[in-house]
Design a protein that fits this description.
CATH superfamily of the largest domain: Glycogen Phosphorylase B
Shape: globular
CATH architecture of the largest domain: 3-Layer(aba) Sandwich
Order of helices and strands: EHEHEEEHEHEEHHEHEEHEHEHHEHHH
CATH class of the largest domain: Alpha Beta
Number of domains: 2
Helix content: 25-40%
Number of helices: 14
Number of strands: 14
Strand order of the largest sheet: 3-2-1-6-7-8
Structural class: alpha/beta
CATH topology of the largest domain: Rossmann fold
Radius of gyration: 21 Å
Length: 366
Amino acid sequence: MKKILIIRHGGLGDHVIFSRALKKLRSLEPDAHITFMHSFHMQDFYKNNPYVNQRLDAPVVARLIDENGLDIPALDRALEGLDGQAFDYVYVPDPHETNLYGVIVARIKAKRKIGFRQDRWVIRNYNSNDYFTDLLDRPNLANIADYQEIFFKQVYGVDFKTDGYDLFADPEERRQIERALSGMPRGRGFVAVHGAGTHVMKVLDDAQVSGVIRGVAARGFTPILIGQRPYPALRGSCIDLTKAITIGQQTCLIEACAAIVTVDSGPKHLAAAVETPICEVGHIPDYLARNYGSLLPESRFCGLPAFAPVNGCPHRVVVPTLPGFDERAVETGQAIRSIDPAEILAGFDRLMAESGGHRKSSDEGV
């Protein structure tokens, strides 16, 4: 039996995009034992995945580094779940140049250690490239879908194109959401509102979220606030489910919504997977538009179709009209906080008009 280890950190959106690659890998290795080390907070996302035999928490190497360098004994303790296993190959699909996976890979026994060539690193005397037997060249456009395609082409010699996502919701979680929604006022339909991603550049302030909620409600929809960042000032103005539901429940909730208003985030990718129309709020500066202009639609930036093609999900990107924002303004969140709620709602209106109540075309569900 071939033994394969995949190591993947990253947020929810990264794992949603990667989900179809797991299915492809299983089709190529039907009898292999696949171990998947992933970010600890992704346990709920993978608990029903049929393509993986064993799931483990991946150690966060950055937390094991102090003024004396890397704490090797602590790293080895974090890897005890592997129980001294030897693998046919280890694959690290992370595209980020500053990853520290090399020090994890160095402590694992494997015939082949496959990862992407890195050009820079964050620890003195550490070169991630030294720890891999197979180095895959990075594509010019750094997106996860491209990296998956390169892996399958160079390792297995087959063409692979990301054409959708594979999510596996718990049937009981679906029933829980259905029961909860049955007792809520529906109006024209539910609209999920998610105002905060994992980085300050993707966080809306209270006034913006409040304005969106008021506007969605004024249009006859029932707004439901989701995500891990609470907005205490907004309690009572909407159905508040922040920090209250699992990833599986969140997926089922989004699937039941008429649309989602969100930043670039995990819930955005969940919405794409279940084909719920997306109104994405964000600002991409001119320097990115210049770099990737040939791939960008008329709205200047559309993370979903340009960087992770899926299912033709209706998608409307809202960007501020204020000129002059540079990279720092985006990184600090100044750019995204400049967007007027009225502009977000205008994008929402266009999305609803364009989608025409578009929902999943298949009846298989999540």
